[in-house]
Amino acid sequence: MSLDRRHFLKKTAMAAAVAAAQQRAFGKYENTELDATTAADGLKWDKAPCRFCGTGCHVRVGVKDDKVVAIQGEQLADVNKGLLCVKGYHVGGILYGKDRLTQPLLRKNGKLVPISWDEAIDVVAQRIYDKPDEFAIYGSGQWTIPEGYVAQKFIKGGLSNNHIDPNARLCMASAVTGYLSTHGVDEPAGCYDDLDKCDVMIMWGNNPAEMHPVLFSRVIDRRSKGEEVMLIDIGTRRTRTTEYSDEYLEFKPHSDLAIANGIAHLLIKNGTYDKSFVERFCNFRKDTDTPSLFGQPSTFEEYSKLLEPYTPEYVEELSGVSAEKIRMLGELFGRRDIRITSLWCMGVNQHTRGTNMNRLLHGIHMLSGHFGKPGDAPTSLTGQPSACGTAREVGTLAHALPGGRIVAKEPHRKDCERIWNLPEGRINAKPGYHTVKMWEQFCTSTEEGGDVSTIWVQVTNPGHTLPNLKKHFTNKEGLKDKFLIVSEVYPTASTKLADLVLPAAMWVEKNGIYGNSERRTQQWFKMVNPPGEARDDCWMTIAVARRLFEMGHPGMKDKDGGFIFELKDDSGAEVPVWEWERYYDVNVDKQLYEEYREFTYMKHKDVAPYDELVKARGLRWPVVQRANGKWEETPFRFMEFSDSYVEKGKELQFYHSVTGDDKALIWFCPYDPPAEAPDQDYPMWLSTGRVLEHWHTGTMTRRIPQLRNAMPHAYVEMHPEDAAEKGLANGDLAVIETRRGKIEMPVWLNGRGRPPRGTVFVPFFDENLLINDITLGEIDPISKEPDYKKCAATVYKRPSGKPAPALDPTR
Ligand SMILES: Nc1nc2c(c(=O)[nH]1)N[C@H]1C(S)=C(S)[C@@H](COP(=O)(O)OP(=O)(O)OC[C@H]3O[C@@H](n4cnc5c(=O)[nH]c(N)nc54)[C@H](O)[C@@H]3O)O[C@H]1N2
Ligand SMILES: Nc1nc2c(c(=O)[nH]1)N[C@H]1C(S)=C(S)[C@@H](COP(=O)(O)OP(=O)(O)OC[C@H]3O[C@@H](n4cnc5c(=O)[nH]c(N)nc54)[C@H](O)[C@@H]3O)O[C@H]1N2
Ligand code: SF4
Ligand SMILES: [Mo]
């Protein structure tokens, strides 16, 4: 198959394009691939990263009369070289949905009514002032870096309370624990250049053709140039990625653990593992009785012994993948003459053994020596535009501090208190609640021990995306003294239960900084004004902090009695940025980021100075200054040829090694069964995920007519034979029932994704068909990330008689 990047992206976007062609253009907003130099008069162009996925493409934004009117792919950006996927071309439209939130709204007698910002800030501050320990912030991998940093400092440095966690807990947490327990420091060693260099690319249960399309196009493009690259899709259902793959290995959900162990087994049995690599760069580990992040030491001999049972035949039995294909994988990893890149995302992370599965993937790359050269890389892809930048690097997780440090360690707290100029002991040593626990506590009455009474939600939509929603969200209704604050841009499933809604400025309506999947930090400037009274998320946090300061909350003062968010102009005078009119008198993003930057030096995650980011289309950290004063990025970490932190002559150095000897850890982790599996009552697997056209809960993409029309509502994908057995035809309404409830939606047969017999798949973008009402809430014991990818369900034809519900009632 020969397809270049542009053709691949056009082809994958065809469904959207066909539907879009039938629709009138979206107001004055248009898609254009025009070069900036040929743009119509009066347009002002500026750069920004795309608002959507972790690929981190850059767009050029065309502005006229305070409105975004055109978008083009940024030719100067290495990530996308001028290309965009269908969401990227439409990204400007997210600002202009008709129902943007433009005023603060407070619930009075059951109804949300407009109030002033002054009153809104008072309400939030008073809730916090009264019960600071029962307050939590639920944030996002779509927070900009300064937004996350401000929230982090406010709660951990100001309130001495660690109840802050991002939606990335639902997404990247298992990747974090995987990297930490392997390299001793988070985030990938490799980068997107690996895709240009690999001979084999293995996708371990992800769907980059739809979820990271521009990135995937990079490898597809190589074929059009006559280069050979073998794509292997290991998945639980056929997707668009499968169409472009040379091999498709379908496995039973959760049995990826067995496949990875099967590969390691063969490498050892056949003596094809990389002995010298292992001796020079690796130690062995296994779990303790109760799972823990760093487990206990093991040896090569013990590791080999534990792998003995994982013969290709046994792996076939567990996974359904033939012994022959397991041998094929074993042989590929055993070869020294090829380079192998593994990619993974939610199939591996949203897994009750997600940490273990991450460890195993790192493990087979280390064991086989497929690490440390461009193209030889185990790489976890990030989903959100700043899950790396804001959740992982700023450390907005309940146990973390900025720069890869943790609250539990006294020296880490002390360093943080020093940088923040706080009195010693201000930061609490006890980790806060992780996401699922936070919402569980919020949805439990105070009498029954529910000790979170106020949550402030920023840039995420938990009422739609938490697992097992009734338990973790809807239960809030009727509980007295629970107060939900939601900062949002549109009405959502979360604002439905909110007691206070704060209207936010979004994307290019404010300054921002994101960090993408390959350690690339990207900056943009505000280009248009937000609608009505919508304001920056960062401002909201600072304004509440200031109100608390005025109320005399001691935590809002630094060691010298100054405000913890004291920002100064060039003359050194404090600027009252908590007054909205003065907020843009200084570049708040720049000042916060420069303060944050100090933390990034603590674990060699050095981000570039703000002014360097302004000039670049993203820079990959560690960004180091050379003798000639030039700032240089680091594409490949730990590798001497690229990473200046590696000592001369070492070749490869894991300088944050858990064992303190510059070595990485290879883990043994057994296959063990999933938290819930099909049985007599619920005989099918239910899996959930995404579609090309929509971003998560569709709040933004469903307001863009072209995208909405291309994919108007959710559906259940099933195998035609399963459907026939149940008397279901294409488009019929089916009932999907799990132990947690049931939901009805139309069946889609032979559609985009094709699940095997015994499995159904439902995308979660549709607010009117909330699949998370019935998904499982079980979590990985180490990362605390939920498993959305599998639970047991039964599916049957909807009993006739009842009038069918409207599928998209808001249209
Ligand atoms: N268009 C679009 N793109 C997006 C997003 C979006 O909403 N829309 N969201 C972004 C975000 S935040 C994320 S996290 C990514 C998600 O990106 P992906 O992880 O690629 O996508 P999903 O649809 O969540 O997951 C689908 C995959 O899960 C695999 N799977 C199911 N069960 C198992 C299992 O037991 N083991 C393994 N190994 N795999 C399994 C299936 O094989 C399937 O390929 O997408 C990002 N990109
Ligand atoms: N069933 C199922 N559930 C899942 C998953 C799954 O695979 N299956 N995946 C999980 C994963 S990986 C993820 S990442 C999560 C994503 O889950 P969420 O983060 O809950 O989903 P989003 O739709 O991205 O929510 C972002 C919200 O922020 C709003 N917003 C946009 N810009 C701004 C802004 O500048 N300021 C403010 N204040 N708000 C803004 C948007 O309108 C939107 O409502 O879902 C998780 N849930
Ligand atoms: S691949 Fe991701 S970052 Fe690139 S244009 Fe598409 S949605 Fe935006
Ligand atoms: Mo995600």
UniProtKB/TrEMBL annotation:
Residue positions binding substrate: 764
Keyword Signal among UniProt keywords: yes
UniProt EC number: 1.9.6.1
GO biological process, one term: Mo-molybdopterin cofactor biosynthetic process
Any Pfam family matching the protein: Molybdop_Fe4S4
Start and end residues of each 4Fe-4S Mo/W bis-MGD-type domain: 43-99
CC cofactor note: Binds 1 [4Fe-4S] cluster.
Keyword field: 4Fe-4S, Electron transport, Iron, Iron-sulfur, Metal-binding, Molybdenum, Nitrate assimilation, Oxidoreductase, Periplasm, Signal, Transport
Catalytic activity, as annotated: 2 Fe(II)-[cytochrome] + nitrate + 2 H(+) = 2 Fe(III)-[cytochrome] + nitrite + H2O
UniProt subcellular location: Secreted
Positions with a binding annotation for [4Fe-4S] cluster: 50, 53, 57, 85
Binding site for Mo-bis(molybdopterin guanine dinucleotide): 87, 142, 167, 171, 346, 350, 461, 487-488, 510, 537, 688-697, 772, 789
GO cellular component, one term: nitrate reductase complex
Physiological role: Catalytic subunit of the nitrate reductase complex NapAB. Receives electrons from NapB and catalyzes the reduction of nitrate to nitrite.
Family: Belongs to the prokaryotic molybdopterin-containing oxidoreductase family. NasA/NapA/NarB subfamily.
Subunit and interaction comment: Component of the nitrate reductase NapAB complex composed of NapA and NapB.
Classification via HAMAP family: Nitrate_reduct_NapA
Protein name in UniProt: Nitrate reductase
Native species: Pelagicoccus mobilis
